[in-house]
Structure formats: structure tokens, C-alpha cells
Amino acid sequence: MEPVPLTDQEFVRFRDMIRQVAGISMSDIKKPLVSGRLLKRVKAHGLRSFSEYFQLVMRGGEEFQIAVDLLTTNETYFFREPSHFEFLKSRILDHWRPGRPLRVWSAACSSGEEAWTLAMVLDSSLGAGGWEILASDISTRMLDNARRGIYPMQRATEMPHHVMTRYCLKGIGEHEGTLMVGNALRQQVRFMQINLNAPLPDLGEFDVIFLRNVMIYFDMKTKQEVVERIMPLLRPNGCLFVSHSESLNGVTDRLNLLQPSVYQKS
Q: How confident is the model at residue 225 (pLDDT cuts 50, 70, 90)?
């Protein structure tokens, strides 16, 4: 028997839950998305309604994390918004001479394409040992995918051919149509579950932080709180990148705009 369709009242419960946990604001137009992503779990448990599933989720444990993962997933791809990587190379990497590894944080890495793209760019400019990357996300399922480093080729249409040849392995046989990030990059990328909407662990300071395609889901108050948490982790003169569809206007006055979507700490 099919579960009863998601009601408005049930949608509000899940919307409030994900807002409280992850700071994500969902408008009413997201109701079909919530229904679509959670319906398989409702069916998997043999439940009759989304209300019954909500009660299961709120007991905590594994199902709570599964629901959070499903409602916070953000699909991405390699070399998304390429001007950021061009800026990173020409304005930062080409002039990097501090005598220590460059530290970069991919703060909402989703399934990992951003972190691996950063690794390719940093390695090609600074060589092995000249950099390190922390990649984090609230979703444990996305982090598992990121660690595996295996993706459909469609996610790499923006990746230059010479970069793919150097850093990736193409799948053959039953794995045809996929690519795998090579072992050379894996030693310097660390993946970690972090909720940006909660107090941050001791991560040290970073020269570059990518906080892209996540602020669009936050209201102004949550944006201000997230940036305030991140600021102590950004070194003086360090750069913060947001997506081209995002802005920190009104969020903080402690960062200087270098170009659209790229900010520098005073």
C-alpha cells in the first residue's frame, strides 16, 4: 500500500527540523523535493505516512542522519565556476612563498568534486607537499562518496583533458563511463563531517576557504552566524570564496571584496 502523500503540516515539521539542524531555509516550493527524497525511506520502513517517518527520525540514531543527508545534498561537478580556480592560481598560488604548506578548506564539499578540483589545481602549482586540504560537509553519505573519489564522466565535462590525464583514471569494462581520482592526490585531502550551523571544532587557520553554494539556503541571520564562526579560522589576508549567485553584502564588514564572490580578510 502506498503511503499517504506528504501533507503541508508534515512538510512544515521536516522543514523546521532541517532548519534547526543545518540552518537551511526551505520555501513552500520545496515540498515536492522533500517528498521525493524521503518517500523511499518511508517505504523502506513499511510506514503508512510521513508523520510516522518523522517520529522515527526524531528518535535519533542512523535514520536521523539519513534524513539529514537526503535533505541537505547539493549536486555539483568538477571545475564548477572556473573563474575561482583561475583567480586562485594567478592571484595566490603563483605568488606563494611562505615556507609552509598552503591550507585550504572546502567547507561544504558535498560529494567531493570541489575538493578534488582544488587538489588538482594546488598540486599542479605547488607540487606534492606544498598544500593540504580539509573538505567537510554535514552529510555523511556525501562524504563517503567523496572519499571514494569515483564519479560519472558527466561530472567532469569542465575538466581540462590534460588535468584528467594527469590526475584521474578512466573506468573500463563494467566501470566504463566513470572516472576515479588517482592516489597521488588522496594523501593531502582530509574529509570530515562538520555542521556549519554549530560550534566548529579546532581546525587551525586556513589561507583559503571555499564556502560556495551553501549560503543561498540560509536566511540573513544564519549567514551572519556562519561567517562569524568561520572568520577566526581565516588567516589575515586570507581569501573566502562564495558562489557567483551569493553575496556577503550586509553579512559582514570584516572582509574586503576583491572581485565578485571573492573576499579577503583585512
A: very high
Q: Are residues 206 and 260 in the same domain?
A: yes
What is the percent of the chain with per-residue pLDDT over 70, rounded to a whole number? 100
Q: What is the CATH number of the domain that holds 238?
A: 3.40.50.150
Using H for helix, E for strand and C for coil, what is the string for the chain?
CCCCCCCHHHHHHHHHHHHHHHCCCCCHHHHHHHHHHHHHHHHHCCCCCHHHHHHHHCCCCHHHHHHHHHHHCCCCCCCCCHHHHHHHHHHHHHHCCCCCCEEEEECCCCCCHHHHHHHHHHHHHHCCCCEEEEEEECCHHHHHHHHHCEEEHHHHCCCCHHHHHHHEEECCHHHCCEEEECHHHHCCEEEEECCCCCCCCCCCCEEEEECCCCHHHCCHHHHHHHHHHHHHHEEEEEEEECCCCCCCCCCCCCEEEEECCEEEEC
Residues 210 and 132 in one domain: yes
What pTM was estimated for this model as a whole? Answer: 0.89
Inside any domain, residue 77: no
Q: Supply the range of the domain harboring residue 118.
A: 82-265
| Contact of 137 with 109, CB cutoff 8 Å | yes
Positions annotated as catalytic residues are 37, 137
Same domain (yes/no): 247, 156:
yes
- Residue 246: predicted pLDDT: 93
pLDDT tens figures, 210-221: 999 999 889 999
Instruction: Give the C-alpha separation, 197 to 84, whole Å.
Output: 25
* Together in a domain, 38 and 87: no
